[in-house]
Every structure is written in C-alpha cells, then in structure tokens.
Design brief:
The protein has 365 residues and is of the alpha/beta class. It has 13 helices and 14 strands. β12 and β13 form a beta hairpin.
Length: 365
Amino acid sequence: MIKVGIVGCGRVAEHHCKAILKTKGIQIKAVCDLNYKKAEYLSKIYKTKLYTNYHQMLLENKDINLVSIITPTGMHYEHSIDIIKKYKRDLLIEKPICLNTKNLIKIYKLAKSKRVKIFPVFQNRYNIATQRLATAVKNKEIGEIRTINVTVRWCRPQRYYNLSPWRGTYSHDGGALTNQGIHYVNILNYMASEITELSCISATLGAKIEVEDTAVAIFKLKNKGVGTLEITTAARPDDFEGSITIVGSKGLAKISGFALNNLEIFSPNPKEQKKYSDSYKDLADRGKVYGRGHFNTYEDVVLHYRRKRKYPVNFKECFKSINFLNALYCSYEKNGKWIKLNKINISKRLGKSSEKISKIYRTKK
C-alpha cells in the first residue's frame, strides 16, 4: 500500500485527497499545513492524521513513502530538496515543479543520487480531448503542423493576488505565464514538434503586481511551422477562453474548455468532437477547473510502484516545459530578443530568492 503525506492544504489539496480516495492501492496517511485550520479541515473530512510541521509528520510516520508537495510554487524547490536530503521519500509535486530551470535540474540530480522518484503533476495531459489531439498529431491525421496557437483569456482581479503574500511575485509565483499558463505551455510542448526559438513581450495591465499578467509570444518549429501564444489574466469581468488550435496540412483541430476538456473542432472527423469532450458536470466546485487528471496521475503512480510502468512525465518532458517557460521570461527581460530552445535558459527574475516570503512558508525542524 502506498501511503501519502500531503504537505500543503490549499486550494487544490482537497482535489488530491479525492483522487487518492478513489484510487486503489494508495491512501492518505497524514496531512500537513502551517495553518492548523486548513490541515484540520482535510483531516476531519478524510479521517487522517494532521500536522503543522512536515518534519514531525515524516519522523513519526516512517511508513509514508510518497509525499505530495502542494505548497506555494516558490517553495516547491526548497521543500523538495529538504525532504529528499533528510528523509529520502518519493515526491509528487504540483505544477510547476519549480520556477527556475537550474533548480529543476538540481532536484532531479539529487533525487537520482538518493534513489528518490519524482512525479510531476501535469493533469491536463490526461484529458480525453488532449489525448485525442495528441494521437491525431502523432498519426499525422491533420498532417504537418503549420501553425499552433495558445490562447488564454482569464480574469484574476486584484483580490486574487491579495489572498497570499506569495501571489504575483517573481520569487514564489510568476505571472500569467507561470501560474495559469504552465498547463498550456506543457500541452504545447507535448503536442508540437521541436520548438526551436521564441520571442516574447509582456505587460502588467489589470493588477498591481510585480509580475506580468499579460504576455504574447511567437515561436518557430523545427519543421518550419510557426506558433503564437497569448496569455492574459487581465480579461474582465470573467474567464473567457483557454484553447490550443492546430492548423495542419490536412486539417484543423482545437481543444478548449475550463481545463482543455472540450474537443471543439476536429476536421478529420467532426463526429468525434462530442465523443472526446468532457463537461466535468459531475465534479463539484473546483473540480470543474482541475478536471479528472489528478485521478489518472495517482493511478499512474500506483502502476509505477506495482507494475514498474514508467510514469508518463519524465525529466525530459518536465525540462522542456520549464526551459520554455524560462525562455519566455528571458526574452521579455531582453525586450523581445529571440531565444534559442536548444540550450538551458535561466530567467534572472523568475524564481529569484526572497527570504522575506520564504520564511513565512518555511517549516523549521
């Protein structure tokens, strides 16, 4: 039996709990959050131990063999390194696994030396719409990619950023590209042939934060195709669109919806559009935003332990997304300069150190 210790009981943590509860071969052993009330809430619902210190949790529960890190993004690196060094427990890490490319490399390097497994969360890869489009691209059903477009037009007002001190910061959050856009960046790199270079500009238009809430980029593909990316959280008064569209030499396909769950256009066979769309109507509250992918994520973790099946998101796949993300920031830090993707790209600002914020979320042993 895989026994999970959850570190971080914020917005998405309950969705993790629901996914674990419905997955055979895995159970929640304990939940932990610096905020006692948050940990208590999940503890009561899922009848599990609660802690406000993950060191205590891991020292008292030697049978916890998987730790789910669901803390603020900018703390993923510190928490991962700490738990690997001190406790050598396998880690499942929420998106994005970390902000800075060099830190991603360090996490995997340390994990390998300590024989610790890393399971990154990119739940939208599991959507039936996403999987159908991925198959269509792989099998050339829509031909060679000529253009690929990412569009995210969401609303995140000032009150959203005021919820926590880590939000809207380069050190612990990143902007629209990192927090909201990471899902689309990941699927883009999953779908597209090799992306060779990009140029990006950004702006902060709808909130008083230090990071971007709007970014526009263009990029080139190895097969001479081209792409565009437009991500904003400055739309008002609500979320309007989140989509990926591919124009191929044989047809066109588009996925959209709350969480890329709708196969909106599929010219090779329009009858499949309904078949490969999922409304998520049966999922309560925030479940509609997160989708079913977390359930599949934990199922794949169980299959990895039980049947030695490879977890679908390895270091290479994770690196492509984080390196692409850092390249976007590198470009707009240099006024839209073209950035090559065949090298390691490290943003000067994204994931920079901020002891002032880190100490708020740091757990002392």
